[in-house]
Amino acid sequence: xxxxxxxxxxxxxxxxxxxxxxxxxxxxxxxxxxxxxxxxxxxxxxxxxxxxxxxxxxxxxxxxxxxxxxxxxxxxxxxxxxxxxxxxxxxxxxxxxxxxxxxxxxxxxxxxxxxxxxxx
Length: 120
Hints:
Strand order of the largest sheet: 2-3-4-7-6-5
Number of strands: 7
CATH topology: Thrombin, subunit H
Distance between the termini: 38 Å
CATH architecture: Beta Barrel
Shape: globular
Order of helices and strands: EEEEEEEHH
Largest sheet: 6 strands, antiparallel, barrel
Low-confidence stretches: 2-6, 112-116
Strand content: over 45%
CATH class: Mainly Beta
Radius of gyration: 15 Å
């Protein structure tokens, strides 16, 4: 799971600032910054290296923009950051909620939102 990865996201990525993810690995609670999001994934950075990345599902609470989302995620990849103290982890969102989908859709550029309408 570690090391280089292939970008397999099906949804448009959105670089974002101002969202925090709180997540537990059963031994502790950790916070990280969300660097990019999509309808079906998130990239969490500045996550302490002590966070145990395992191929299982986690519950994370994403907070920001006066909203909170409880999201079930599973790691796809992780990389240690150069200073060795932090890591970044890419998570796939398991069954995203309507609230999450609406939040992300509202932040996407119009041409991305309208793309599916133009094909009908």
